[in-house]
Amino acid sequence: MMRYELQFTLLVAFALSLIGCDEVANPIQSNNLNPEDTVTIVGKRAIVLEDYTGQTCSNCPDATKTAKNLEKLYGSRLIVIAPHVGFFADPNPPDFPANFKTSVGNEIDQFFGINGVLPAGTVNRRRVNNFWKVSYPNWPTEVQRLVSLESPFSMTDTLDYDTSTRVLNLTVKIKVESNPGSGPFNLMVYYTEDSVLSPQLHKPPLGTVQNYYHSYMLRGSLNGTWGEALTVSSASVGQTIAKTFNFTLPAFINHRHVHFIPMVAINTSSNREILQARKIKLVP
Amino acid sequence: MPIFFIRLSGLLFFYFLCTRAFAQSNDSNLLGGEIRGNFTIDAQYYRQDSTIGAVKVDERMRFMGVGNLIYTRGKFTGGVRFESYEKALLGIDQGFNDGGGRSGIPYKFASYMDDNMEITLGNFYEQFGNGLTLRVFEDRNLGLDNSLEGFRVRYAPMKGIYLKGLFGKQRFYWSLGPGIVRGGDGEVAVHELYEPLAEAGWMITTGGSFVSRYQEDQDPTFNFPLNVATGAGRLTVQKGAAQFSGEYAVKNNDPSGTNKFIYNRGRVLLLQGSYSVSGLGISLGFKSADNMEFRSDRGAQDPNILFINFLPALVKQHTYNLAASIYPYAVQPLGEIGGQYELSYRIPKNTFLGGRYGADFVINMSAVNTPYRTPTDSITAEQKKISYNNSLFRPGKQTIFRDYNIEFRKKLSSKLKMNLMFMYTENDTRLTLGDARGTLVKANIIVADFTYKINSSHAIRFEGQVLETAQDQGSWGMGLVEYTVSPHWFFAVLDQYNYGNPNESRRVHYLLGSFGYTKEGMRIQFSYGRQRQGVLCVGGICRVVPATNGATIQITKTF
Asked: How distant is the Cα of A58 from the closest Cα of chain B, in angstroms?
C-alpha cells in the first residue's frame, strides 16, 4: 500500500513539474507593425482608448505614457481621449487650482465603473472579463486584440471653421459597409484639447511638476454624453447618413490643439461598444 | 431623515423575516443533514460635510449584505454565499457595484471528505505554508475576496504526510480573473512519522509548495512569460518552549504593471523564532522580500485584487484607534527588508511594579527599510530587463516604517484596570499609503485606557490617546467613554480632534456616538456622527476609508 502512495505522490510532483515556468530570453518584441499601413486598412475599426485621469493622480502620467507609446505603434488607428474624473481631478489649491472635469467625463466615469479609481481606461468600451474598466498595463493587450476587427461602418467628414468667430460647421458622413446587426446605434461627437499646460502630480521623487502638458483632455461633446440615434439596419448597407453640427468653440480652449472625435457605438444598457471612430484636427 | 428611517425599517423587517424563517425550520435540520450559516448587513446613511471632506452620495444610503448557508450531511458539505452591494459602502472597492449595484451568488461549493481525502469543487480558500506562494482568502472588512473557483484535493496518504493540489481562476468582483492558477503543496510532519521524536518532545515539520499561473500574451511590445511559477520550502522545529520556523520562496520572471515590467526573479525569506515560558515570552522575526507580488493578472493595478500569494506583516497589529488607523504599515511585496522583536514579561505580585495583582509589560520593536539595490551594468542584463541586483540581507537606506512601543497593563484594584502604551513611529507615507505628496512622518503616540467595573454586569471604560507629530496633518487627540451592560448592551461616545492641523480650518472634531445589542449569536450596532478619513489595515493589507458623516448600522447573526 505504502508503495502505491509513494507512487501517487511522485506522480503529483511530476505533473506539477510539467506545468513549470517560462524563462523569457528576449523580453522586447521586434514587431512589424507600421502605423502608416494600419491607417489605410479599409474596413478596419478605429480603436478608442479612454485614459481616465486626474491632476493629483501620481500614477496617471505612467498611464498616459502607455497611451502615447501605443499611439506611436498604431498611428491614427488609435484615438486617445482623456476624461479628467473623480477625486483626483478635483481642484486642490494652491498647487492644483484648475478644474478639468466635464459633465460628459463624470457621467462615463460612473457608467463604466471607473468611479474615479485611477489610472484606468476603457478600450472601445468593450467589456473585458465582464468589466469595462481596463487597467493601464493591460491596454496594449486589449488594443492589440482589436486590431484585426472589422467595422460595419466607415466615416468621412467635412469641417469649416472660422478662426475669428470660433464658429465651426462639422458634417460627419457614416457609410454602412456591412450588416451592422440589430443595434441600436448612436453617434457621439466628443472634442479634446492637447498640450494644456497645468501642474500634474507625479510619483516621488518628482512630486508636483508645474510645467506639465496634459494630452488628449476631454473638453466636452457636441451632442451629449451618449450622442444621438442613428437609424440603421441590415437594409441600410451601402447607404450613407450625414449629420451636421454647428458649434462655437469656448474661448478658453486653444483651437490649435483641438480634435473632434465622432464615434459610432452600440447603445443598449449593457453594451456601449464603439464600432467606428475618427479623429479630426480643427486647425490643420 | 424620514427616508432613512423608512429604509431602515425595511432592512430590519427583511432581517427578522430571514432569521425567523430559519429558526422555524426544525432546528436547522434539513433532509437529514444540518444547515448553518450567518448573515451580515451593513448600511450607511451619508450626509455631505465639506468641513471634513465627506462627499455627497447620490444614493444617500448604501447597503451591503452577505449571507452564508452551509449544508452538511455525513461526508458531504455544500454551501453558497449570497452577496448584495446596493451599493458598496464608501471605502469598499466600488468594483463590487458592477456599475449601478449588484446582488448575486459569487461563492458556491460542494465538498466530499472521507478518512484521508477531501475533494472540493466550486469556490474555496486555501493557504500553502505561510502564504508566500499561495494564500487565497477573504476579509470582509477590507472588501477583499481572492477565492479560487475550480477544484481542490487534499490527501493524506499516511499519518504525517499531507498533500494538496488545486487549480482554478480567482474571483474578480463578479467575474473571474484571466489567469489560471495551478498549485500543489506537500507537508511532512516528521514527528508523526517517527514517534520517538515526538516522545522526546520534538515537533519537526517540513514542506514545500509550487504554484504556477498561466496567462495568455497578446501584448504588442513585450514577450511575456505565459507560465510564471513560484516555489517555496519551509521548516518548523519546536522543542519545549522554543520554536523556530523559516520559509524561502522564489518566483521566476514575472513582468507586471506594478513592477514596471521588469524580468527580475522574485525572492522572499521569512524567519521567525520564539521562546515562551510562564511569565516570559520572546519572539524574533526577519523578513526580506524582493519583487514578490504575484497576481493572476499581470496587468492588475487595483489594490487587493487577484493576489495569489501573501507576505505576512512583521509588525505589531495595533488595536488602539490612532495607532492603528492613521499611520499603519502596509506590506511592500515589491521590496522590503525588516524585522521585529518582542519581549513580554509578567511582573510578579507583591513587587514594586507588580503590586497586589501583578502586571504585564510588553516591549515591541519593528523596523522596515527598502532593500539595497544596485542597477545592472551589463548590456545583456539590460536587454533582458533585469533592472537591478540586490541581496536579501542588505537593507537600503530608505526607511519605510519604524514602530517602537511599550505597553504596561495592570490591575489597580478589584474594580479598576489600567493599560498604558507609548509608541514612537516613523512611516514613509509615499510608500505605505501611496501618497505622492507624503513624507516620512515621525510621531509619538500615548494611550491611557482605564476600565472600572461598577458591579458584576456594569462597567465603564475611559480611553485617551494623543498622536503628536509635526508632519502631515499634525497632531491628533482622542477621547472615548464606553459603558457596558453585560452581556447585551454597550454605549459609547468617541471624539477625535485634529488640534495640530497646520490648516486651522481643518482643526475639527469628529464626534461619533454608538450603541450595540448582542444576544444569542446576533449583534446590532448603530452609530451616528463623523468618521475621519483613515486607513484600515489587516495583516499589512490596507484600504483607505474616506471621511463620512452620517449613520451606520450593522447587523450580524450566526445560526
From this structure: 6
Asked, for residue B144, whether it belongs to a domain, the answer is: yes
Residues 252-291 of B with CB under 8 A from A: 252-253, 255-258, 261, 263
The residues, any chain, with a CB within 8 Å of residue B226's CB and separated by 6 or more, are A22, B214, B215, B216, B217
Distance, CA of B334 to CA of B388 (rounded, Å): 13
Do the domain assignments include residue B98? no
Q: If residue A106 lies in a helix (H) or strand (E), which one and from where to where?
A: helix A103-111
- pLDDT more than 90, % of chain B: 75
Query: What local confidence, expressed as pLDDT, does residue B118 receive?
Result: 95
Which of B128, B293, B400, B437 should one mutate to test binding to chain A, selecting the residue with the greatest count of A CBs within 10 A? B437
Tell me the one-letter amino acid at B54.
Answer: A
Question: Has residue A208 been placed in a domain?
Answer: yes
pLDDT tens digit sequence for B164-198: 999 999 999 999 999 999 999 999 999 999 999 99
- In whole angstroms, what is the distance from residue B498 CA to residue B47 CA? 20
Nearest partner of B229 among A20, A23, A14, judged by Cα: A20
In a domain, A160, yes or no: no
Domain with A191, as residue range(s), is 40-152+185-221+251-281
Beta carbons of A9 and B261 less than 8 Å apart: no
pLDDT at A139 over 70: yes
Report the run of H or E that residue A67 belongs to, with start and end. helix A60-74
Q: What pLDDT score does A38 carry?
A: 43
| CA neighbor of B124 nearest in space, from B104, B102, B154 | B154
* pLDDT for residue A24 is more than 90: no
Which of the two residues, A260 and A235, has the higher pLDDT score? A260
Is 90 exceeded by the pLDDT of residue B385?
Answer: no
With a threshold of 0.90, tell me whether the complex ipTM lies above it. no
Q: Does some domain include residue B160?
A: yes
Query: Could you tell me which chain A residue has the CA closest to the CA of B162?
Result: A9
Is A46 contained in some domain?
Answer: yes
- State if pTM tops 0.90: no
Does residue A201 sit in helix, strand or coil?
strand
**What is the overall mean pLDDT for chain B?**
91
Could you tell me which chain B residue has the CA closest to the CA of A116? Answer: B94
Is there a contact between B212 and A203 if contact means CB atoms under 8 Å apart? no
Domain count, chain B: 1
Do residue B175 and residue A131 have CB atoms under 8 angstroms apart?
Answer: yes
CB contact under 8 A, A144 and B301: no
Q: Which of A35-49, A52-66, A152-166, A259-273 has the lowest mean pLDDT?
A: A35-49
Answer whether A112's CB lies under 8 Å from A125's CB.
yes
pLDDT tens-digit map of B372-384: 999 887 777 777 7
Residues of chain B with Cβ-Cβ distance to A205 below 8 Å are none
The alpha-carbon gap from B77 to the nearest alpha carbon of chain A, in Å, equals 25
The pLDDT of residue A19 is 67
Cis peptide before A27 (omega within 30 of 0): no
In a domain, A77, yes or no: yes
Answer yes or no: is B554 within a domain: no
Q: Find the domain containing B224 and state its range.
A: 114-264+288-304
As a whole number, mean pLDDT of residues B199-215 equals 95
Please give the tally of structural domains in chain A: 1
Q: Considering only CB atoms, which chain B residues are within 8 Å of A20?
A: 212, 227, 229
Whether A32 shows a pLDDT value over 70: the answer reads: no
Q: What is the CATH number of the domain that holds A210?
A: 3.40.30.10
What's the sign of the alpha-carbon dihedral B19, B23, B24, B27? positive
Contact A113 B97 (CB under 8 A): yes
Determine, for residues B223 and A24 on separate chains, whether the beta-carbon distance falls below 8 Å: yes
Supply the mean pLDDT for chain A. 88
Query: Looking at chain A, which residue has its C-alpha nearest residue B386?
Result: A27
Contacts of A2 (CB under 8 A, 6+ apart): B158
